[in-house]
């Protein structure tokens, strides 16, 4: 059990990073990671060591995120008034504008493309690991990545390839 908990602990920063990228909300992301860890530890007996604990944890996190999306669609979306930017505040620097533009473009992607893109580009997982986490064939993953990257090029007005990891 101690070895299992040590492996889980080493995955927490990556889980938080992925959850924050998915939710774009620090509090929701932390809640998502906490729920993921609680579920993984309470269902430790269900883990079959056919692969790394990391892939199992990402699968749990992704399933919890998808479930929360389904339930939030029924409830509607709440907006924190503190997150609404002031219209008269200029951007602090051009790089910040480009990052904000890319983040907005990623938010417009269909969920399946967004999930695949973030696992590869943000978490640096291999195609096979990401395909396993998403429960899809590797070819389907590559297709989703291609469509996501093409959509990002169009959305950001860049004819060049976006700065996302492409080699695995």
What do these coordinates show?
The chain is mainly α and 168 residues long. It has seven helices and no strands. The longest helix is centred in the middle third of the chain and has 23 residues, at 53-75. The radius of gyration is 17 Å and the shape is globular.
List keywords for this structure.
Arc Repressor Mutant, subunit A; 69% helix; Rna Polymerase Sigma Factor, Chain: A; 168 residues; mainly alpha
Secondary structure tally: strands = 0
Low-pLDDT stretches: none
- CATH topology name of the largest domain, in short, is Rna Polymerase Sigma Factor, Chain: A
SS-derived structural category: mainly alpha
As for the number of domains, it is 2
Mean pLDDT: 83
Provide a count of the helices.
7
Rg of Cα set:
17 Å
Q: Hey, roughly how much beta strand do the residues contain?
A: under 5%
Helix content: 55-70%
**CATH C-level name of the largest domain:** Mainly Alpha
Described by strand count, sense and barrel closure, the largest sheet is: none
Short description:
The protein has 168 residues and is mainly alpha-helical. 69% of the residues lie in helices and 0% in strands. The protein has helices spanning 2-23, 26-42, 53-75, 94-108, 111-122, 127-134, 138-156.
């Amino acid at each position: 059990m101690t070895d299992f908990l040590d492996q889980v602990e080493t995955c927490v920063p990556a889980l938080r990073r992925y959850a924050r990228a998915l939710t774009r909300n620090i509090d929701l992301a932390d809640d998502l990671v906490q729920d993921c860890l609680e579920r993984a530890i309470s269902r430790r007996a269900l883990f079959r060591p056919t692969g790394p604990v990391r892939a199992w944890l990402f699968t749990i996190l992704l399933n919890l995120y998808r479930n929360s999306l389904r339930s939030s669609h029924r409830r509607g979306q709440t907006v924190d008034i503190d997150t609404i930017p002031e219209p008269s505040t200029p951007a602090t620097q051009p790089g910040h504008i480009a990052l904000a533009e890319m983040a907005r473009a990623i938010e417009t992607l269909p969920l399946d493309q967004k999930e695949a893109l973030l696992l590869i580009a943000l978490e640096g997982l291999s195609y096979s690991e990401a395909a396993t986490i998403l429960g899809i064939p590797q070819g389907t993953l590559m297709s989703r990545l291609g469509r996501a990257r093409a959509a990002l090029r169009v959305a950001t007005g860049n004819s060049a390839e976006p700065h996302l990891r492409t080699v695995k």
